[in-house]
Amino acid sequence: MPVLPERREQIRSAHAALILQVVAACQNVHLRAPLEESLRVAAANGWGDLVAVIRHILAGQRAQGLLQGLDEEDGTIIESILMGLQNPETLPKAGDPADPTLAAPGLASVILAARRGEPEALAWLGRMASQMQRAGGDMARMGAALGPLSRGQYDRLKLERGMGPLGRSLLQSVLDALAKAEQQ
What we know:
Distance between the termini: 17 Å
Radius of gyration: 17 Å
Number of domains: 2
Number of helices: 10
Largest sheet: none
Protein name: DUF1641 domain-containing protein
Structural class: mainly alpha
């Protein structure tokens, strides 16, 4: 499945703190202790492959071969770290929120790919739903809606149950992006 630039930027924005933390720890050994706690938590939450590659980077490896075998999300994170080590100008900005205008088309493309049975999309969608549910509030409700959306269930009233205005707006944007993508 090709990676859309918008999705790559969403991934970079969502993981900016980790990307910046790894780059800083590579440049200053004294920053590794706080990073270790983040890596331990990440590994415990199913990000073992990503953590293993980050440990290789911390040990000084910089080869593009580190990207082999990684899924789309992990690969984008590692690529961002490697690029950031070479050129800090490429790093995502700390605290920049993910652009919600990019979220809907990116989610819609993953939902459609998952509906076609693409394994990477199914895995990515599952991880995204888990992350959103951990965030709570509207994001948790939107995360819960990803499964039904990937099965073609578009009943907006059911999907938006319990959402506030921002959640309903994101859901409507995703539904619009899905309708647009299906017409193509």
